[in-house]
Write a structure and sequence with these properties.
about 90 residues, mainly alpha, 3 helices, elongated
Length: about 90
């Protein structure tokens, strides 16, 4: 997987959890269709988030945390998303 694909997948995961966060605290959509997609995709996105986080970290080490590489931006997006996701499970 190249850096561009890693960044695009990281962006998809980040946007997915951002929409879930906004729905839970701001929008409060209660559409059945939205709930179905949320239930189907959340476990997959959690696993994908952790796998991509490890891959992005390895790429950052390889690129020596260069700000010009997309791997650092992927790692940053995934780290923010992971902290928000798993932090929301801890904080009630």
């Amino acid at each position: 997987m190249n850096n561009k694909t890693l960044f695009q997948l990281s962006l998809v995961v980040f946007l997915y959890f951002s929409v879930l966060f906004l729905n839970g605290y701001v929008f409060k959509w209660e559409s059945t269709l939205f709930g179905v997609f949320q239930e189907l995709l959340t476990i997959l996105m959690l696993v994908l988030q952790l796998v991509l986080l490890v891959m992005a970290f390895k790429r950052c080490l390889k690129d020596r945390f260069s700000t010009k590489s997309l791997s650092l931006w992927s790692f940053s997006l995934l780290m923010v998303s992971s902290l928000a996701t798993f932090g929301s499970l801890i904080v009630l």
